[in-house]
């Protein structure tokens, strides 16, 4: 089968690989659609970040080269021994977290904070940029009949956004700022609408993404190349209750903090390629809070229920669909060069 595999920075290759078969407790999935994530792009441009290179990942037991892709869905093609509650032909989306189940965080049910945290398609395993993926049966969630396969490929990134908003202190009627209107930032806008935010101010240099933010319910969309985003947000709100950092750009983090009110909160959602600095007094003197958030936990069913109500719509977020043979030029390179792109989906069987 064809699979897109990470070999190094700017070195993703579509190769012929052996089709995996499920072992005990596993399922094989014929992949329908797989999305290219910002984390994938980080690995392409500046990795390894999650990709294990010199040593095998302790849970996947893999190291580079690895088959990428962790935002994906498909139909169950075969079942390993002992799998119950699933059947061949079931439409499923994948929650691609490797967790040990034994560390303190896992024992508290916070498996996304596992000491050995990994992700299928980033830390090894049979990722979604392939015709067939094999994962433990516990990683799959049946999709409601009302959801299309394209929606299924958006459950994972929407889960990131919904978890971030759930982790925040946002309350109905509060004001929010979202720095960055890439796929996750736009999904955060929608999750904030679900949470009842009264105002959502988005900061984004791309005009196409600013328009998309407004389409999805943002109150304003600020161009930081021509406006002072902190001044604009503070003028409109007196300081946002919560700001979400979704860029991974070092100079943006202090802007997020400064945009919040006294006792305001900044949620750091991005995965970072390097350090970022801010003056601690900006937090201390206003008793502000900083909180990091990673991935998601126990949120996939809620995401799919919201999708069935019209939130996190693939029709509004997917900007390109490509075959796996074009994943580098029309996928990764397009995301680097074309800021009009939001979510690019890959068909591994085409």
Can you describe what's shown?
With 350 residues, the protein is of the alpha/beta class. The chain has 2 domains: 2-142 and 313-347, Quinone Oxidoreductase, Chain A, domain 1, CATH 3.90.180.10; 159-292, NAD(P)-binding Rossmann-like Domain (Rossmann fold, 3-Layer(aba) Sandwich). The protein is built from 11 helices and 18 strands. The chain has helices at residues 38-46, 104-107, 149-167, 183-195, 207-215, 229-237, 252-258, 281-284, 300-308, 314-317, 327-337; strands at residues 2-8, 11-16, 26-35, 66-67, 71-79, 91-94, 97-98, 118-119, 132-136, 140-142, 175-179, 199-203, 220-222, 240-245, 260-268, 289-292, 318-323, 343-347. Strands 3, 5, 6, 9, 10, 17 and 18 form a 7-stranded mixed sheet that branches. Strand 11 (175-179), helix 4 (183-195) and strand 12 (199-203) form a beta-alpha-beta unit. Helix 3 (149-167) crosses helix 4 and helix 3 packs across helix 9. It is globular. It starts with a strand and ends with a strand. 48% of the residues are buried. The mean pLDDT is 97.
